[in-house]
Every structure is written in C-alpha cells, then in structure tokens.
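How it folds
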Amino acid sequence: MMSEAVVEDYSFEIGVYNEKVREAIKRGERHRQLADSWADIHYIEVKAPNEAKARTKVDRRYPPQQGYVIASVTKSKY
C-alpha cells in the first residue's frame, strides 16, 4: 500500500494593483473598465503549497498583461 505525500497548503495574502489604472489617474483620466480603486493595492487571500503556486493562481485571475502587478506576498500557515 503506497502512502500519499501530504501537501500542506499555506495561506498567502497577496497585494495586487493595476498599473494601467495608476497611469490613467496620473494623466487625469479614468480606466475604461476598472474602478479607480485598482490604483491602490487590493489584498487577495489564496491557499497554495508555496509562494510560486500562490503567485500563479493570482496571475491567472489578475493577468500581468492586463496591467495587474503583484506588490507583496505574505505567507502564514493556516
């Protein structure tokens, strides 16, 4: 009988903002699709076994190609 390796997940708080929104605000404009609040950091909580996988999850939901930037990553065991 093979035992499965237990993969522990951690809770990561990831700070994300949108550079395109920040640039629009600096020009005195608004982004066409996103609220001005995306110029500020939004904190997203994800569960993952490591920081790289947590970043991958956030990048899928908030793609860098659309201007999203990960500003911070904080890990805590849950």
Remarks:
- The first helix runs from residue 19 to 26.
- Residues 33 and 51 are 29 Å apart (CA to CA).
- The mean pLDDT is 91.
